[in-house]
């Protein structure tokens, strides 16, 4: 008897992926959302590596940072809630592929800071640690999942 599509796509997902994608990364994105949305001057100062002397920002920049915060929140909720309700590998793979593409865009967005931002770890602040190595960790985790490392069918 042929198995249903949902039976074929139910997978046992390794503890590391569940921990990282359901808890660690969404909490990190949530902290970014809070920082960009609630403390936009501080967020911007950390990004530009300048002292935060004023809480005043141009209106457009304030709106843009709140929109960024909303995107971080969307990222956190998609990952934490959608992946939590299913073990269907198609859903996990689709969402993680989308996030992998977003990771590439996120890393590209740093190029105006100069290429040294990618490798001069001794100059990194908290924002850089979140923008560079943590993004690489997420990308590596997504690639590993997409390549099937630590992902097994429940039939196995």
TrEMBL record:
InterPro entries: DUF7704. It holds the Pfam family DUF7704. It comes from the Eukaryota. The chain crosses the membrane at residues 20-39, 59-83, 95-114, 134-151. The keyword Transmembrane applies. Keywords: Membrane, Transmembrane, Transmembrane helix. Residues 12-150 form the DUF7704 domain. This is DUF7704 domain-containing protein.
């Amino acid at each position: 008897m042929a198995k249903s599509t949902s039976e074929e796509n139910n997978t046992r997902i390794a503890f590391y992926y569940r921990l990282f994608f359901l808890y660690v990364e969404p909490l990190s994105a949530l902290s970014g959302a809070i920082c960009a949305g609630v403390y936009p001057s501080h967020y911007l100062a950390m990004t530009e590596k300048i002292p935060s002397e004023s809480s005043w920002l141009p209106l457009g920049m304030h709106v843009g940072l709140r929109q960024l915060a909303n995107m971080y929140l969307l990222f956190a909720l998609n990952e934490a809630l959608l992946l939590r309700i299913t073990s269907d590998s198609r859903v996990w793979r689709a969402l993680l592929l989308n996030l992998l593409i977003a990771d590439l865009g996120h890393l590209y967005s740093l190029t105006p800071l100069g290429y040294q931002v990618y490798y001069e770890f001794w100059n990194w602040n908290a924002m850089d640690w979140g923008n560079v190595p943590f993004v690489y960790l997420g990308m590596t985790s997504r690639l590993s999942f997409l390549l099937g490392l630590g992902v097994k069918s429940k039939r196995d």
